[in-house]
Amino acid sequence: xxxxxxxxxxxxxxxxxxxxxxxxxxxxxxxxxxxxxxxxxxxxxxxxxxxxxxxxxxxxxxxxxxxxxxxxxxxxxxxxxxxxxxxxxxxxxxxxxxxxxxxxxxxxxxxxxxxxxxxxxxxxxxxxxxxxxxxxxxxxxxxxxxxxxxxxxxxxxxxxxxxxxxxxxxxxxxxxxxxxxxxxxxxxxxxxxxxxxxxxxxxxxxxxxxxxxxxxxxxxxxxxxxxxxxxxxxxxxxxxxxxxxxxxxxxxxxxxxxxxxxxxxxxxxxxxxxxxxxxxxxxxxxxxxxxxxxxxxxxxxxxxxxxxxxxxxxxxxxxxxxxxxxxxxxxxxxxxxxxxxxxxxxxxxxxxxxxxxxxxxxxxxxxxxxxxxxxxxxxxxxxx
Length: 384
Ligand code: ADP
Ligand code: MG
What we know:
Blueprint: H1 2-15, E1 20-29, E2 41-42, E3 44-57, E4 62-67, E5 72-77, H2 87-101, E6 109-115, H3 125-140, H4 147-161, H5 169-176, E7 181-186, E8 192-196, E9 204-214, H6 218-237, H7 251-256, H8 263-287, H9 291-308, H10 314-325, E10 330-333, E11 339-347, H11 348-366, E12 371-375, E13 382-383
Parallel strand pairs: 4-6
Antiparallel strand pairs: 1-3, 1-13, 2-7, 3-6, 4-5, 7-8, 9-11, 9-12, 10-11
Helix pairs in contact: 2-3, 2-4, 3-4, 3-5, 4-5, 6-8, 8-9, 10-11
The structure holds adenosine-5'-diphosphate and magnesium ion.
């Protein structure tokens, strides 16, 4: 409410009469990591932290944009050569351009926006920003673009205007997010299904502990992991032509090619095949309301990411080990790895002791404090 009010006051001061309010959300992914490019499942949900904007047509062919968080304004036209200099404005410019490329109309507008997704912490503030504007522009111009295409508008914005070759999960979660629900997305077929997820009602909380480190290995290691996955899939394809992606493979089929591929590729593939199954097991557990089993899956994912896929780091393993020691229900590294957050499912009565211990012990060991974000699964892109 406070953010909405601040935006509105600024909008009145900058542009006179008020406009329409829209909001969108960042996301978490409960389980299903490094599965997207292997054609497997991911299991994200939108969170109670997002981007909000007030927006109104201005009768010109220009966009006037004000970022409350950066206390900065910019204006740009809607042609390809009008790309603004400010990095933060390119997300909005990109969304306009990608809408136009899809045949949508984008009339000039004024907008003030702000957000509370921590930047670069793995909660996808950029997807929140894109989906907020993709949704608002579509609604105001009555373009009738469906939600999946709105998510793709966000993804193409990252690819074509922000230099980030991301998958579809973040924008998908931000567009499709629904309060009290996680969404299982099949990254191969793009079929999806909602699963009720209300840890609060069952006596749990979701909390992220942000290690605030980003190890430099990330992008070269990512490419190597992808190559290992493709290599393992190709080896199995010889006996099993249906293996288009690693997610199509069975554990037994991997054993068959063990001697034919480097041990490293075997371990990477073992993780991915296990992880695809874990998403399904996690969903089964949720349908039974069994948060303890779901939490155990998160620990298994962490183990796999740390020991088989080898994308964890000392800081994340430390946080995971502490969670296990304190009987936290579930804990794992979230995101690509080599830094960022652990996501933790913790019983309410354990929440404070765990968070206090994590902050204290992490700080003592690594010399800087981690950040703590409480998250509640909430609605994605919407008109307010
Ligand atoms: P993340 O993992 O949070 O998505 P990115 O680097 O992909 O991190 O995106 C962060 C960028 O998105 C910021 O540097 C900024 O340009 C833009 N952004 C996100 N939130 C805001 C905001 N509230 N106000 C202005 N720009 C924002
Ligand atoms: Mg991002």
